[in-house]
Design brief:
- By secondary structure, this protein is an all-alpha fold.
- Helix content is about 80%, strand content about 0%.
- α1 packs antiparallel against α2, α3 runs antiparallel to α4 and α6 crosses α7.
- Keywords: Sigma factor, Transcription, Transcription regulation.
- It comes from Verticiella sediminum.
- GO terms for molecular function: DNA binding; sigma factor activity.
Amino acid sequence: MVALDESRQHAVAALYADHHGWLHTWLCRKLGDSFTAADLAHDTFLRVLRRGLADAIQSPRAYLTVIAGGLVNDHWRRRALEQAWLDELAARPEMFEPSLEERAVILETLDQIARLIDGLPALAREAFLLSQLDGLTYPQIAERLAISVNRVQKAMTQAVKHCYRAMHG
């Protein structure tokens, strides 16, 4: 856990007290699920806590909305990934269907991958997914994202470094 001095503790506590209810309501509207909204609200404040900037935030709701919005996008992406996997399983003949244990391992692995790339900026994450999941080349990614191949290379370098640091600390 991050060690905070008394003034930062007060800033985080005040931010939480002033905006948690609003953020939870905002997330409920986005997600349609109070439990997931509560989890993402919690994750939002954890990110604020880890960044240690609570006392310097000028527009708290805008700041929280940006963080929570990214978490919502990650949530839907993970859900879509899981659903795609389940759809793929449903389309397979029964004799090729993995056991419940294998399914659990696969879904856990997919969730770990999703968490691994959660911290990436949007462009790096998108380029990484297009490369690794869709098998697109850098020129194809550049065309799809309307950016230069050089920018794709930089985004991929950023993604690979991020993944390496996350896996090897």
